[in-house]
Specification:
This protein has helices at 29-34, 44-53, 56-63, 81-98, 127-139, 161-167, 174-182, 194-197, 213-221, 233-236, 286-310; strands at residues 102-104, 115-119, 146-150, 170-171, 186-189, 225-231, 239-243, 253-256, 267-270. With 316 residues, it is an alpha/beta fold.
Length: 316
């Protein structure tokens, strides 16, 4: 396994320790390779452009990222340092100027080892996921690449699926998450799933039931769960309707109230990591995983309440 190339002249990335077993790939590697000229590839021209577009501090952080380089510039799932840099460039305006993300508590995210960040999900379209991804990419110390777990229909989306893979997004299968946690990665999940992002505006900040899968995996791998709250996404892009049209496997077609989100300020909060006492053999016990998921949901709800109480208005 060859070291990854630094974005701007720094040392290459070191490989993660862990199993080399191949998981089921949610983003077919053949398609990733075929589109590598289009999105997030490792060409000198692209690296030069990213070098000019990123501030020095961000370039240095991206140089310090570690991931398993298969010798071609990306890992098993198609993630690359250049893909993370491109995501930073494309999302920076939303993060810094439009949503003006205010973040607290990132020191609770462990610096190494397997960890799951579990957050609430809302806002019709996944702007909240994009902002949490960039916040973790920028706030973790040392910098860690968030591996956002996407619904299974995401790899079928045209044009953007390779961009997502290059940035670190992984399809939501149990085997994929097993592989990531075995390799000590930072995994980002939204346990509410589609019911969270698709709920009506009248139910804003009312958490839907957390699914238990992330807790099952946390117990199996001894990984802490860091609860995270995102406040602002509910008001940024309210959903007025959803049509029973299934495109590329998505459960419905959402109809937002406006064509672009309102510039509501996002507030992100991270809580202390939750470490479960259950031994790995209890990871398949429904009662154990339900209790663990309820504990995580209660922690996220508390962070939401805290952020709502502290904010001074939708745009401040």
């Amino acid at each position: 396994m060859e070291p990854g190339r630094a974005l701007v002249g720094g040392a290459g990335s070191r490989a993660w320790a862990g199993t080399s077993a191949e998981p089921t790939r949610p983003f077919p590697l053949g398609r990733v390779l075929a589109h590598s000229r289009c999105v997030g590839d490792d060409s000198g021209l692209r690296r030069a452009l990213l070098r000019r577009l990123l501030p020095t501090a961000q370039r240095e952080r991206l140089d310090a990222l570690r991931f398993d380089d298969l010798g071609q510039g990306w890992d098993t799932f198609g993630a690359s340092r250049e893909g993370a840099a491109l995501a930073d460039v494309l999302l920076r305006g939303l993060y810094e100027s439009w949503f003006r993300v205010e973040s607290r508590g990132a020191e609770h995210v462990p610096a190494e080892g397997p960890v799951i960040v579990a957050a609430n999900h809302s806002g019709t379209l996944p702007f909240d996921a994009a902002m949490l991804y960039l916040d973790l990419l920028r706030q973790t110390d040392p910098p860690r690449l968030p591996r956002a777990i996407a619904d299974r229909f995401v790899p079928a989306l045209p044009f953007v699926s390779t961009f997502f893979a290059r940035g670190g997004v992984v399809g939501g299968t149990r085997k994929n998450m097993d592989h990531l946690l075995e390799r000590g990665e930072l995994v980002m999940v939204f346990p509410e799933g589609t019911p969270g992002i698709g709920k009506p505006f009248s139910e804003r900040y009312q958490l839907q039931r957390f699914r238990e899968g992330h807790c099952e995996l946390a117990i199996r791998h001894g990984a802490p769960v860091v609860p995270a709250a995102i406040v602002g996404a509910e008001e940024a892009l309210p959903q007025v309707a959803r049509l029973p049209i299934r495109l590329f496997g998505a459960p419905y077609l959402p109809i937002p109230a406006t064509p672009i989100p309102f510039p509501v300020r996002y507030h992100v909060r991270y809580g202390p990591p939750i470490r479960f006492d259950a031994p790995p053999e209890r990871s398949d016990d429904p009662e154990t995983t339900r209790a663990a998921a309820a504990e995580v949901q209660a922690a996220v709800a508390g962070l939401i309440d805290e952020a709502l109480a502290e904010r001074e208005g939708l745009f401040r």
